[in-house]
Amino acid sequence: MTPASLFPSLPSWLLRIALVLLLGAGPALADTPVPRYFRELASLTADFRQTVYDPKGQPAQVSSGQVWMQKPGRFRWDYREPTRQIIVADGSRLWIYDEGLEQVTVRKLDAALGATPLALLSGAAPIDEAFKVGAARNRDGLSWTELTPKAEASDFRLLRVGFQGDRLAAIELEDAFGGRTRLVFEHLQRNAAIDAERFRFVPPKGVDVIGDVE
């Protein structure tokens, strides 16, 4: 069973996390630590460990892989354990490859974002335009800042961004149904060069391709 089939909103919340990572900061928040970090962030690569918790706080699934992100609007999530899945945004399209199902789903990125403007994902809009930024609080050895979406029709309740010193260490998302997903980052490299081919996806031969195919 893939992460997407177990947790149907996976592409949606991944887009929201990517949104936060690729946003800038408005003048009012530009000199505060979290918005400043994302304003100065041009690219990111890291290994990640993802834990999905049910509404009772019990782990429902643990998976791991590697992520690459680059402004404007490009990212790649490679899930390697327990099953292989690749999610790529090339700036205009979102590709989801499920190796077990031998299937690729492709959508236009602006349609996949739903009510979230593509301009936000591109990094052109400030973080405080989309979120209310709370005060930092310490928990589990990290300094956590809560980001609450300003849009009423949001599919998640809040995001928490955890820092260890000046290093991005973790991100948590709470959905509207009480579920929680935590991503812990290791070997994170900030603003390192990333080959453009990393964000180019070509469906493997023999797989089914469905969705917005031209």
Describe this structure in words.
By secondary structure, this protein is of the alpha+beta class. It is 17% helix and 45% strand. The protein is built from 6 helices and 13 strands. Strands 1, 2, 3, 4, 5, 6, 7, 8, 9, 10, 11, 12 and 13 form a 13-stranded mixed beta sheet that branches. The longest helix has 13 residues, at 10-22. Its main location: periplasm. One of its GO terms (biological process) is lipoprotein transport. Monomer.
Summed up, what is this model?
This protein is α+β, with helices and mostly antiparallel strands and 214 residues long. It has helices at 3-6, 10-22, 33-39, 109-112, 118-121, 127-130, and strands spanning 43-53, 59-70, 74-81, 85-90, 93-98, 103-108, 131-133, 137-139, 142-149, 156-164, 167-175, 180-190, 208-211.
Task: Detail the topology: elements first, then pairings.
Elements lengths: L2 H4 L3 H13 L10 H7 L3 E11 L5 E12 L3 E8 L3 E6 L2 E6 L4 E6 H4 L5 H4 L5 H4 E3 L3 E3 L2 E8 L6 E9 L2 E9 L4 E11 L17 E4 L3
Parallel strand pairs: 6-13
Antiparallel strand pairs: 1-2, 1-12, 2-3, 3-4, 4-5, 5-6, 7-9, 8-9, 9-10, 10-11, 11-12
Protein name: Outer-membrane lipoprotein carrier protein
Main location: periplasm
Organism: Plasticicumulans lactativorans
- The tally of beta strands, per DSSP, is 13
Rg from Cα: 16 Å
What oligomerization state is this entry in?
single chain
- The number of distinct helices, counting runs of at least 4 residues, comes to 6
The end-to-end span amounts to 29 Å
The CATH architecture comes to Clam
- Tell me the fraction of residues in β-strands, as a range: 35-45%
CATH class: Mainly Beta
**SSE pattern, N- to C-terminal:** HHHEEEEEEHHHEEEEEEE
Helical residues, percent: 10-25%
Q: Any idea what the shape is?
A: globular
CATH topology: outer membrane lipoprotein receptor (LolB), chain A
Q: What's the rounded overall pLDDT mean?
A: 79
CATH homologous superfamily placement = Lipoprotein localisation LolA/LolB/LppX
Number of domains: 1
InterPro entries: LolA/LolB/LppX, OM_lipoprot_carrier_LolA-like, OM_lipoprot_carrier_LolA_Pbac
Subcellular location: Periplasm
Protein name: Outer-membrane lipoprotein carrier protein
Family: Belongs to the LolA family.
